[in-house]
Amino acid sequence: MIKMFIQSNPYGGLLLCSLLAILQCTYGEVGKLVCFYDAKSFVREGPAQMSLAELEPALQFCNFLVYGYAGIDAETYRIRSLDPSLTNDRQHYRHITALRQKYPHVRFLLSVGGDRDVDSEGVADSGKYLSLLEQPEHRKSFQASVLAELNSHGFDGIDLAWQFPKNRPKVQQGVFKRVWGSFRGWFSSTSVDEKSEEHREQFAALLAELRSDLRSAGQLLTVSMLPHVSAELFIDVPKVLSNVDFVNLGTYDFQTPERNPKVADLPAPLYAMYERDSSHNVQYQVQYWMNQTSAISAHKLHVGVTSYGRAWNMTRNSGITGYPPIPATNGAAPPGRQTVTSGLLSWPEVCDLLQQQLQDREVPPLRKVGDPTKRFGVYAYRAANDLGENGLWVGYEDPMTAAIKAGFVQAQGLGGVAFHDLSMDDFRGQCAGEKFPILRSIKFKL
């Protein structure tokens, strides 16, 4: 029938080519799964260590593997390794990129920044990232090192998880202040960076300069937005999207024990919640980017989805219902055996708490509360006892909530999901016998 149409219509071939181009634009660039790989998981001790053999099963589901993280040298402004604990970081680069021989469909990217490039006090250092933008010679040094690093170690492109200054935490506001704030705009304050407008243009210029060199070599250029970095302050959305292959949105960690140790709340709701900051949800962040550009660029946006939970200590004053927001919390909950980080629990650690607590007579079980609306997320909690002990509240991502967000991505016509990260998923299948359950749920939904 198609052949007859082309033969009978002098413009049939042209129309068919146009139709195929539209279909490719509409469907060929969506449903992507960007998998972030924390290289430190290779040298962690205990149950958190993930070998390359344990990483490999995930690659059948990933379209991109983002190796995190490299940093920037404060004197030369060239890319530098952030993992001296690895016996030979450059060799580890090669071990990762060599996996394309077995998984040729995967593109391997090196990510720079990601809040991992810290100062002497262990705080993410945004100063040198801004200084690099301000000086053309610093940008040239960085660009040259990007090309050298990618070519030397076989990466297919660079991901810039740029360490801009973060918005300051907001206190819970009354109704009048929230309404007034909606008129002024969530990102209206420039107090975190007085030169934000200049840095906004300079970052767009850096991307344009990198784009020319990378694309001539067939390499990719992507941007990862970090949580609580203001896109309005630092990102010229039309210019950025025109110069990159895609953007991974930091649509998670809206609430963490570090930013608000006294109030626990869902860390990554899909939609706005009642009496919350209207910007602290996935839908708002996606809509902001969509409003700044044409709908045809939607396929360049990837929604960030995590494989972990954020956990607070509940006190006697936190109540017994567990319904968020939880007042009077006492900071970050103790670290798990895998994450070894206060207030952070991987999916297998959360799963273990949900399954094993019933067998412990001294500590009450952790109670899971689902989300029948499919709009906000799930949480689990254990109220503090009469002595104010053993209280715990966790807001987390699981296979079902991750699939719901993947469905949101589909419905919005977005490019795909950026998954953070493989080492926090159940890569050994210890919870339900299936390896990488959250990753699988995302891929199957996409």
The neighbouring-strand order within the major sheet is 1-2-4-5-6-7-8-14
Detail the poorly predicted runs: 1-8, 10-28, 173-190
Give the count of structural domains.
Answer: 1
- Secondary-structure content class: alpha/beta
Radius of gyration, CA atoms, in whole angstroms: 23 Å
- The total count of helices amounts to 14
CATH architecture: Alpha-Beta Barrel
How would you sum up this structure, described in words?
There is one protein chain. The chain has one domain (31-307, 397-445): TIM Barrel, CATH 3.20.20. It is 33% helix and 16% strand. It starts with a helix and ends with a helix. With 446 residues, the protein is an alpha/beta fold. The model is unreliable at 1-8, 10-28 and 173-190 (pLDDT under 50).
